[in-house]
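I am still learning, so can you show me any protein sequence you like together with the matching structure tokens, please?
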Amino acid sequence: MPLEAVVFGLLKVSLAAIFSVILFMMFKDKQQRSAFVWILIHICLNYAAIFFLSKVLATDYSLVMASGENSLLIGTSVLLWFLSLICLVISVYQFSVLRNQAVYQNKTK
């Protein structure tokens, strides 16, 4: 069952919109730039995981090794998704550490 042709266009547009917002926020707030970089890595890895997962849905099932190829694509997608979640946790941690440092600095003034 192939995916609709519109889905990849929507993914590209939404990814570009998210990147532009995050890049704007990165240049606006230089103190939290490293956390925004981790979020960008998270989004890229998540997009790659979705790409590999969508290739599973578009597989030609008449091929001999379709099942093996699907298993490999699903495993790759899960690995990329796991790495993207690790990047998200790192970015949330950095945001919280930087926020706590800013609150502490405001209290000491």
Notes: The chain has a mean pLDDT of 82. The chain is about 85% helix and 0% strand. The chain has one domain: 6-108. Residues 6-108 form one domain.
